[in-house]
Design goal:
44% of the residues lie in helices and 0% in strands. The chain is mainly α.
Amino acid sequence: MQHSLFDLPTTPRAAPPVGAQPATPKQLQFAKQIAARTKADLPMELQGDRQRLSQWIDTHYKRAPQTQFSNYPSSKQVAFAERIARIKRRQVPHECFRDKGLMSKWIDSNR
């Protein structure tokens, strides 16, 4: 005998607090990835509250360790700066390629 999805028992979910927005699908996916990686328990009641799920993510998400290249600008940041430089017919200063903060300031001042 085959069962349909309607025959399966369902577990009741706790009602979200009044005024709470439900978590976004991307937020839920990210939280599930963190839970799988860290083997942490992801409570079902957090799915109904975007703010509480965000707090859970903040406490369980471990940032990447700092390396010697952590302060370098990203490839997207460099590509964007180079595109601005071509349009404005300027060069991106060499020191900007070694510091993401400087690159960000250069991009903001040359948009």
